[in-house]
Amino acid sequence: MTSQVFHSWRRYIYLWLTTSSRSRYNRTDDVGTFLQAARRERNKVQSINDLFHTCGRRHHHCDTLEGITLQGRGEGLAWGFMMIPACFTLTFITSITLYRWGDRLAVQKHTLEEWQHCLLEASQNRAAADEELQSVRQRAVEVRAALRPLPAEQQWGAQLESNVLFINEKLQRHSRDDEPPRGSR
User: Which domain of life is it from (predicted)?
Assistant: First the structure.
């Protein structure tokens, strides 16, 4: 009887420690729900992996290593185990690349338009500068033509210079004649 009482106490403590109130929605224990949820998720993943692994077997039993290393040359290959995730990954990368390629093309187009605008402004500024330079050259030619002496003016200028030289010589002779000798004073 003592062993029965002792056994009942053990059973009572065991039940008290391991059981809990039940959820009214899913009838699972509140204690250990995280473990149960993790087990359910693991079972889901494993079932999907099993589906991938078995969908390409065609009733041939191959080792997983043979399927992964492609040793069977496609005979009995678990193609779903390799090809479906590879195709999904390739599609995902391609879609991202195409999306980014469109953005890159838009940026390149915008940059090209900016460069074309800058080149247009530069060519317009260059044309305006060339026109200004032509007008300045034309004015310089006109000024040189206006400043260039006429042949008659050149002749009068030469005669005026000769007259000035003649007058200067006369003045120098006259001033020497008017000077008293140096020793007389």
Answer: Eukaryota
Burial of 78 (0-12, 13-18, 19+ CB in 10 A): buried
Q: Is the pLDDT of residue 124 over 90?
A: yes
Residue 58: alpha-carbon gap to chain centroid = 50
Are 44 and 67 in contact, with CB atoms under 8 Å apart?
Answer: no
Given a cut of 70, whether residue 139 has pLDDT beyond it is: yes
Of the listed ranges 7-16, 153-162, 169-178, the least confidently predicted one is 7-16
**Which residues on neighbouring strands pair with residue 126, listed in sequence order?**
none
Q: Are 67 and 46 in contact (CB under 8 A)?
A: no
Exposed, middle or buried, 90 (CB in 10 Å: 0-12/13-18/19+)?
exposed
Note whether 22 and 30 are within 8 A (CB): yes
SS3 1: coil
CA–CA gap between residue 141 and residue 137 (Å, rounded): 6
Say if pTM beats, i.e. exceeds, 0.85.
no
